[in-house]
Amino acid sequence: xxxxxxxxxxxxxxxxxxxxxxxxxxxxxxxxxxxxxxxxxxxxxxxxxxxxxxxxxxxxxxxxxxxxxxxxxxxxxxxxxxxxxxxxxxxxxxxxxxxxxxxxxxxxxxxxxxxxxxxxxxxxxxxxxxxxxxxxxxxxxxxxxxxxxxxxxxxxxxxxxxxxxxxxxxxxxxxxxxxxxxxxxxxxxxxxxxxxxxxxxxxxxxxxxxxxxxxxxxxxxxxxxxxxxxxxxxxxxxxxxxxxxxxxxxxxxxxxxxxxxxxxxxxxxxxxxxxxxxxxxxxxxxxxxxxxxxxxxxxxxxxxxxxxxxxxxxxxxxxxxxxxxxxxxxxxxxxxxxxxxxxxxxxxxxxxxxxxxxxxxxxxxxxxxxxxxxxxxxxxxxxxxxxxxxxxxxxxxxxxxxxxxxxxxxxxxxxx
Length: 416
Prior knowledge:
Blueprint: H1 4-10, E1 26-27, H2 29-39, H3 41-60, E2 67-73, E3 88-97, H4 102-168, H5 174-207, E4 218-219, H6 232-237, H7 243-264, E5 270-279, E6 284-292, H8 297-367, H9 373-408, H10 411-414
Helix pairs in contact: 2-4, 3-4, 4-5, 4-7, 4-9, 7-8, 8-9
């Protein structure tokens, strides 16, 4: 797999956060996407449909068949035609001779339909890869929320012990101890909620490859290392080679092949036959030859060609409209990526350091008796809130990057 989001998370860390109560097997993003593409019913359905189209193309590429036929005349009549004495029996073999390159046109149509089916399968694979990658990011973010929740509990426990010592020494009121106990209970509740959210994310990820329950321990990655963002112009250049655009091109190929069949039908086919006729009355036999040519083929061909031309024109404009819409969608995602990137940088480089400093100063002030427990608790809350915001903004950046991949990935990026 070569999606840029896969490369991005591959460099973001080789191991994930250990999930309490689960196996230690670590799942990498490229493995998760490969498993989803290997077993998802939609992918399997497209594979079967592609084989069906190939079979149809093989059938349509065959030459016209030989036709065996026979006739029996002047049988079981009246008078001299009673019985079989005056019967005339004919056995013939006939064939339609295709003119104007009709078979070659059918072969070209079969190839175009196979190409179109393959392009549609690529579109499906992109959608499944995007789904798996997005759910992988959800698990990664949930793991880091659990990690922060565990750290918050440890800090709340240490703070409760410290407050208890000060209360026992009569330096702080009992209300500070009750507040510290409430903070610990709140931290434990947040850990429980984080674990529940993680289990839900893991279930969703496992469902992308049909597993009834998570069959992995943790996922590999680290939202602390984010991939760089390409220029918008570079991203938009990739839109011309996406499976969506390739599918439109393939559909144009199908219409072009059908137009060629319509053009070739202007030249009528010739049906020829050769047989033997037996005359029971004289006991003689003779050769029978037949030839037939349909009339009016040119006019029907003109209508069919005009129909194909209009469909090709319609497809051209629909393709242009799709390109405009996709480019605008990509621009919207790109703007959100820039915003998420700015938020991550602001939280990580400016807000978190200040929050850490404020917490450290509040802790020293509390230990020295200059600050109340309420001031320290508020400083701690701000610090952990910013850590959660850092994870969420980084996860949002990665999810948006996956969406940008969905719009700009080529067929080679997701074919096995």
